[in-house]
Design brief:
The complex is a heterodimer of chains A (114) and B (112). Chain A is mostly beta strands and 114 residues long. Helices cover 0% and strands 56% of the residues of chain A. Chain A is globular and about 40 Å long. By secondary structure, chain B is mainly β. In chain B, strands 2, 4, 5, 6, 9, 10 and 11 form a seven-stranded mixed sheet that branches. Chain B has a four-stranded antiparallel sheet with strand order 1-3-8-7, with no helix packed on it. In chain B, a hairpin with a 2-residue loop joins strand 7 and strand 8. The chains are: A mainly beta (114), B mainly beta (112). At the A-B interface, strand 4, strand 5 and strand 10 of A face strand 4, strand 5 and strand 10 of B.
């Protein structure tokens, strides 16, 4: 079975500071990994995905994540936070073969202060 | 494409009433997922379909919950009878042959 752990339910940064949201996964087979973002009263939007190609993945809005198999991690980073990045972020895992659903972490709320 | 469409966006109902949530997946997608989001439990997978056939319903909390997918363009999630603890945001998502799932805007259900 697969699972995801997001460390820190709430992260606060200043505008312009580095954003680091942590995600560790558990999977018995090679995983697909995702980061989604949710703005208030909206659905989830894909930020980026890892599907066994390059381990450093670039997404939308300047975000990127690095797949580290040895650490079973897929942390999300952005060099410089913007006020508009304030949202809830979800890490998710699925297995590489077809026929499975995304399993989500509990989410991390990112606050950005000016 | 208009994306995944859910209706209604908001639903307020009294305890004991039947509630039906609706979802239209993206055309051509053969997987459909129902998730529930609450503060306490986060995003939980309730059930998912492949080619209109339920594959895994182990996340459906009780027999009061049922889901159907009569055709490739429509799915329903029904709660009968509804209870206050069912209050949550319910999301539908669909996926094609790629790995990415696309989510609807959700239905916010309040049971009073």
């Amino acid at each position: 079975a697969q699972s995801v752990t997001q460390l820190g339910s709430h992260v606060s940064v200043s505008e312009g500071a580095l954003v680091l949201l942590r995600c560790n996964y558990s999977s018995s087979v090679p995983p697909y990994l995702f980061w989604y973002v949710q703005y208030p009263n909206q659905g989830l939007q894909l930020l980026l995905k890892y599907t066994s190609a390059a381990t450093l993945v670039k997404g939308i809005n300047g975000f990127e994540a690095e797949f580290k198999k040895s650490e079973t991690s897929f942390h999300l980073t952005k060099p410089s936070a913007h006020m508009s990045d304030a949202a809830e972020y979800f890490c998710a895992v699925s297995v590489s073969q077809a026929g499975t659903a995304l399993i989500f972490g509990k989410g991390t709320t990112l606050s950005v202060s000016s | 494409d208009a994306g995944v469409i859910q209706s209604p966006r908001h639903e307020v109902t009294e305890m004991g009433q039947e509630v039906t949530l609706r979802c239209k997946p993206i055309s051509g997608h053969d997987y459909l997922f129902w998730y529930r989001q609450t503060m306490m439990r986060g995003l939980e997978l309730l059930i998912y379909f492949n080619n209109n056939v339920p594959i895994d319903d182990s996340g459906m909390p009780e027999d009061r919950f049922s889901a159907k997918m009569p055709n490739a363009s429509f799915s329903t999630l029904k709660i009968q009878p509804s209870e206050p603890r069912d209050s949550a945001v319910y999301f539908c998502a669909s996926r094609g042959q790629g790995a990415v799932a696309f989510f609807g805007q959700g239905t916010r259900l309040t049971v009073v």
